[in-house]
Amino acid sequence: MYNSSGISIALIFITVGIGFKLSPAPSHQWTPDVYEGVRVANLILAPLQQWRPPDSSWFQLNVDGVVEVGSNSAATGGVLRNGNGDWVFEFARSIGKCSTILVELWVVLDGLKHAWRLGIHKVAILSDIHKALVSIEDASSDHIGSAIILDIREILSRN
């Protein structure tokens, strides 16, 4: 599709980032476990601690975005697992130029779209950008990513 070394490098970083976030040994020693989550309807938003399976009726979406310093080129990716820890799907894409908060909002939106297409509505989303997750719950529309937030909320209201 694209023969860009920048996209290839971004996808490598996303893959490594997701691997780190899933916390396989030995990186589980470095994974912070001091964050609290935010609950919105059938969605649990929480900065990643260490991967733990959700309740059996829930699915867990680990998401990450990366922004290249200097060019602001961004890419996203995520992994959805069921309550047993079984892999359901993964996704990645290039976003273009944007900020770290916007790239995290984009990856949440992408993950929810994929989950809803599969009929999966109970999703726990884990991200490392707590501010992006809190902005989804915040009723204010003054956020720079308010259009993306409205799209996320629209998906959540379908249930």
Automatic annotation (TrEMBL):
Signal peptide positions are: 1-19
Superkingdom of the source? Answer: Eukaryota
Q: Which SUPFAM superfamilies match?
A: Ribonuclease H-like
Respond yes or no to whether keyword Plastid is given for this record: no
Annotated NADH:quinone oxidoreductase/Mrp antiporter transmembrane domain ranges read 1-40
* Domain RNase H type-1 span(s) in chain numbering: 62-157
InterPro entries to which the protein is assigned, alphabetical: ND/Mrp_TM, RNase_H-like, RNase_H-like_dom_plant, RNaseH-like_sf, RNaseH_domain, RNaseH_sf
| Protein's UniProt keywords contain Signal | yes
Keyword list, A-Z:
NAD, Signal, Translocase
Q: What is this protein called?
A: RNase H type-1 domain-containing protein
Q: Which organism is it from?
A: Hibiscus sabdariffa
